[in-house]
Design goal:
alpha/beta, single chain, 49% helix, globular, 33 helices, six-stranded parallel beta sheet
């Protein structure tokens, strides 16, 4: 590997002339920016200045900036400026960056190359990145997809050559999947060959089969409908899919889904609707998605993996929307599934009610941060669902993740209006870390490589810019924060935005409290949820059964701060002697990497063999209804096992709003919550809870101590009533559903009035290269 200073990197020759003054000024502005977030904003101006440099005079300054190890913020901005430069000089520099040692620079070079025409010399390194996978592989794949629109045969030839260089199953699957993004006979021939090759890895065969069913956003082509006429013994694509669909296992499941896609595409091409069922159900139809969870109506997996508060919210919100008095009569919640789920329930999606649809993804579930390589499969699955559910009036997206990226592309293709929940993530985290001294310009490159900060920022702003309406969480300084962190001025007249607080299921919380209270009467048997809790509490030694519970609920993910809470509690005897700590969340038996890391930290603080004796109870994930019951039991106590008036703690590093905090308050619990983000808008300091810097162990310990005191003082009952009333009046799920229903109705009506035909090929929505239509 080289560096930007090696001979392989384009020289800053005198022939290039004096550096373009606008580029110099824009570079200096990025360097002098008062914060990293502001520097990320100013990178757009640098890209625009470089795009106007028709004679390449800015090359020396940009090359020097890329090679500056002390300022990764400016280096990344300069990489994208090179991609925006007209002509070949900038592209030559980008190709050289693909060979540098710093992984974050390679990623951004692979991304920035997609802003211009094909660079043949970059094909092989981009193919190698695709083969390696990960976030960089996804970026390289996007660039190859962009180039394949104009020069498909060159891209396919490079991918075919890449296949000869690897026998790794995952790499071959990714390369074949990328072949499926190209049109033309060479691509189809290679897909057919891979699909029928029984010596090929299942991952690669599945990728080929899935692509064969795709109409590739350009109608049904003859070579897809009839197959390549020579070179493949089995003939047409349809016959290949029919034969594979007759088998068993994931490959056959994938073939059946692809065959359905092909038939729908053929029907559309011949003038049909491509859909089953009625075309125009009454009322409005809304689609919402979270691709990183296997969301189910009973919420049995809440707190496991990525099944956090967003999974709970989507289930309860989807129900409330169709049960309310508004115009929404259909909600469709999309989450992940396996190959067998591709066609499940598609024919019912046109009916009123709350439906669950799955995007079939190959392999085991992966964590949100590692899911970027699923972009193509996610896009294909989301397109299938939206077509089956048509007409869809609104697609509601949340978060800057691969699901939103893929869905935004499909929405643009199918002309479905988007409502986007806009939150300053990762911007608030970057800002806080810089202020705390844990993130610097020098270290930003490594942080960006791990957290994809620039890409997530760009994705968020790209979707926000193209959304019909923005929804925001309440924050104490909302307008200032959104403008400072995201560069979005909510006071501009053309910004359609509103604030909608999240909501919780108050009926379920009241039902849980009643069930716990009923067990105080003699002869009333505890529910299964209470019996489960009692069994857990009975593992405590007798001397600890007279203590209240310190309850925390959530995913075992570093951002949730569960390990830090356990460490804080375990290392402070005064705190440990006052309460037992009950941790609900995570998969204790087959943990993800993030869960395993948190469990290791907890085990280091409290050895597992001593956990119950010392008052630490790790419950793992539980169904949402069980959690509601345990919250009520934390407040009311369990006779002989746990004292009443426990406390709920959210130790998250950041919390944009906090569903579990609201549920705890609705249960009458005093809460400890982060002092930033959404909680300060509803936690009344010193009354319903305590706000703290949850990233600081001492501040967290002091907050927990104070919350325990509040929960036991003479005004505790009044505090509980205030907490319940505040949630009831402002944060019921019905209130949230009514507010969003009004938004959806307004967006759908405006779209009907200004409807445009879907594009035949989607723009590179979701993560547009800087300077390329962004």
């Amino acid at each position: 590997m080289g560096s930007p200073h090696d001979a392989s990197f384009p020289a800053a020759s005198a022939a290039a002339g004096a550096c373009s003054p606008p580029v110099v000024e824009a570079l200096d502005a990025v360097r002098r920016a008062p914060s990293i977030v502001r520097g990320m904003r100013l990178a757009d101006d640098l890209v625009a200045a470089a795009a106007a440099d028709t004679d390449g005079a800015s090359l020396p300054a940009l090359v020097a900036a890329v090679g500056d190890p002390g300022d990764a913020v400016t280096a990344i901005a300069a990489v994208h400026a090179l991609g925006a430069m007209p002509g070949a000089v900038g592209r030559a520099a980008l190709v050289a960056v693909l060979d540098v040692a710093e992984p974050h620079l390679r990623e951004h070079a692979a991304w920035a190359l997609g802003a211009g025409p094909i660079a043949p010399v970059a094909l092989e390194p981009l193919v190698d990145l695709v083969a390696c996978g990960g976030f960089a592989g996804m970026l390289a794949q996007r660039t190859l997809e962009t180039w394949a629109a104009a020069t498909p045969d060159d891209v396919v030839a490079a991918l075919e050559h890449g296949l000869t260089r690897t026998r790794d199953a995952g790499a071959r699957g990714r390369l074949v999947e990328t072949v499926g993004l190209a049109l033309g006979e060479p691509a189809t021939h290679l897909l057919l060959s891979s699909a029928v090759d029984e010596s090929e890895w299942p991952e690669a065969r599945a990728a080929a089969v899935a692509a064969l069913g795709d109409d590739l956003r350009d109608g049904v082509r003859d070579d897809l409908r009839d197959g390549v006429r020579d070179g493949v013994r089995d003939g047409s694509v349809a016959r290949v899919l029919d034969r594979l669909a007759d088998g068993y296992g994931p490959l056959a499941d994938t073939a059946r889904t692809a065959r359905n896609d092909l038939r729908v595409a053929a029907d559309r091409a011949s003038g049909g609707t491509g859909h089953r069922g009625p075309r125009h159900p009454s009322g409005r139809s809304v689609v919402q998605l979270f691709l990183h969870a296997d969301i189910d109506a009973s919420l049995t997996n809440a707190g496991r993996g990525d099944n956090g508060g967003i999974a709970t919210l989507l289930v309860q919100l989807g129900d409330a929307l169709v049960e309310g008095a508004g115009a929404t009569t259909r909600t469709i919640t999309i989450s992940r599934g396996g190959p067998a789920d591709g066609l499940a329930g598609l024919h019912t999606l046109v009916e009123p009610g709350h439906h669950y649809a799955r995007v079939p993804l190959w392999g085991p579930p992966v964590h949100l941060a590692d899911a970027w390589p699923l972009r193509v499969a996610a896009r294909r699955g989301i397109r299938r669902i939206l077509r089956a559910a048509a007409p869809v009036d609104v697609l509601h997206l949340r978060m800057a993740d691969v699901g939103s990226m893929a869905a935004a592309e499909v929405a643009e293709e199918l002309a479905v209006p988007v409502v986007f929940t806009l939150a300053p993530d990762p911007h608030a985290q970057v800002d806080a870390c810089e202020a705390a001294g844990t993130l610097s310009r020098r270290g930003f490159g490594e942080a960006d490589h791990l957290e994809h900060l620039v890409a997530r920022d760009r994705l968020l702003r790209h979707i926000a810019d193209r959304s019909a309406h923005l929804v925001l969480f309440p924050r104490p300084e909302l307008h200032q924060d959104i403008c400072r962190l995201l560069g979005v001025d909510l006071t501009e007249p053309d910004v359609r935005a509103c604030v909608v607080a999240e909501g919780v299921d108050l009926v379920g919380i009241r039902r849980a409290a009643a069930a716990v209270g009923a067990t105080r009467h003699e002869g009333v048997e505890p529910s299964p949820a209470l019996a489960d809790l009692d069994s857990l509490l009975q593992t405590l030694p007798p001397q600890r059964r007279n203590l209240p519970l310190l309850l925390t609920v959530g995913r075992l993910h570093p951002v949730k701060g569960v390990a830090m809470l356990a460490e804080t509690w375990a290392t402070r005897a005064d705190l440990r002697d006052r309460c037992n700590l009950l941790v609900v969340g995570g998969d204790l038996h087959t943990p993800t990497d993030d869960e395993a890391g948190q469990l290791e930290r907890i085990a280091a603080a409290v050895p597992p063999t001593q956990a119950a004796c010392r008052g630490l109870l790790l419950a793992g994930h539980r169904p949402h209804a069980v959690v509601a019951t345990w919250m009520a039991a934390t407040r009311l106590g369990r006779p002989g096992l746990a004292a009443p008036d426990g406390v709920y703690v959210c130790a998250s590093v950041k919390e944009e709003f906090g569903i579990a905090i609201l549920e705890a308050m609705a249960s009458g619990l005093v809460v400890v919550a982060p002092a930033g983000g959404g909680p300060p808008t509803y936690v009344e300091e010193g009354v319903t809870g305590v706000l703290a810097d949850t990233s600081d162990a001492d501040a967290l310990a002091q907050a927990v101590t104070r919350a325990l005191a509040l929960s036991h003082d003479a005004e505790a009952s009044t505090r509980a009533d205030a907490a319940r009333a505040g949630v009831r009046d402002r944060f019921g799920i019905g209130t949230m559903a009514a507010a969003l229903d009004s938004v959806y109705q307004r967006v759908a009506s405006q779209h009907d009035d200004h409807s445009t035909a879907p594009s035949r090929r989607p723009a590179a929505a979701g993560l547009a290269p800087q300077g390329a239509g962004s």
